[in-house]
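Input structure tokens:
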């Protein structure tokens, strides 16, 4: 089977790419939707970039002023020479919201992005309207999966060949054929940038059991997140089981739990139609079907 290009999803879509200074970090973003609409911010996972959401910009832009950014050290955003810890990611996200003039936001994070999103919601509850935690296992991601992330990501950055890049991206998907040639090419261009090897080492400082434990939220902290929250999981996530998602849901006092079928770690890409429906329904205050 073949999969359409990621750029097919953006043909005919009013979107833009731009940069802002987010607390001293030059930050790249993709944006769709109209100024003045409620703001939605997508956050990608470790080693990822804004293209993780190319299949979601059009649908969400119909309802929200929608942004997908490259977190610090990722994509085409600045890559300062220090480890990117969770508090620094939180500061970066708040800096981005300040830079675009967003007082409040609905925040949707996948994997690392979901981990960061939960910390943003805890540290800055007044800035968050709704929260989506997408396959965000955080401290529940096992040592074997963390080792795989470190090894495959490092190998792809050190040797950004089609084979290594494709292997890293296929690990995210339940169906290997979902990885398109231009997705591989897009990541190659990012990973070939000067300074990327140094940056990825700083990124992967959070992909260890020790870091996951150190920055884990306690049950009491999860209970303090009162925002309407969607815990979105999949039945084939390579980082954490459905039971992990169910446990996370049980800790959040105002959450809903949805499992997407036949998807891996990037449900927003693998089954964009289903993801967009579920996600938009939740963000509009409806119960996802």
């Amino acid at each position: 089977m073949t999969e359409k290009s990621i750029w097919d999803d953006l043909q005919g879509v009013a979107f833009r790419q731009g940069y802002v200074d987010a607390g001293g970090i030059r930050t790249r973003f993709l944006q769709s939707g109209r100024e003045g609409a409620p703001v939605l911010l997508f956050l990608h996972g470790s080693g990822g970039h804004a293209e993780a959401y190319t299949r979601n910009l059009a649908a969400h832009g119909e309802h929200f002023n929608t942004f997908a950014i490259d977190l610090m050290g990722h994509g085409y955003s600045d890559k300062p020479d220090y480890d990117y810890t969770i508090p620094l990611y939180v500061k970066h996200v708040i800096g981005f919201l300040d830079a675009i003039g967003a007082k409040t936001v609905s925040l949707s994070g996948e994997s690392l992005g979901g981990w960061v999103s939960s910390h943003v919601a805890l540290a800055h509850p007044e800035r968050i309207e709704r929260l989506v935690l997408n396959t965000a296992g955080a401290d529940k991601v096992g040592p074997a999966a963390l080792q795989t992330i470190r090894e495959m990501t490092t190998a792809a950055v050190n040797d950004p060949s089609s084979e290594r890049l494709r292997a890293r991206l296929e690990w995210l998907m339940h169906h290997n054929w979902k990885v398109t040639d231009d997705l591989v090419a897009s990541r190659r261009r990012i990973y070939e940038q000067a300074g990327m090897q140094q940056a990825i080492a700083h990124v992967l400082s959070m992909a260890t059991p020790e870091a996951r434990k150190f920055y884990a939220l306690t049950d009491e902290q999860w209970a303090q997140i009162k925002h309407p929250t969607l815990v979105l999981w999949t039945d084939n996530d390579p980082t954490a089981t459905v039971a992990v998602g169910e446990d996370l849901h049980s800790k959040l006092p105002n959450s809903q739990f949805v499992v997407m079928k036949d998807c891996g770690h990037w449900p927003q890409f693998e089954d964009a139609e289903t993801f967009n429906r579920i996600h938009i329904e939740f963000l509009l205050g409806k119960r996802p079907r």
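Residues 143-158 form the longest helix (16 residues). The mean pLDDT is 96.
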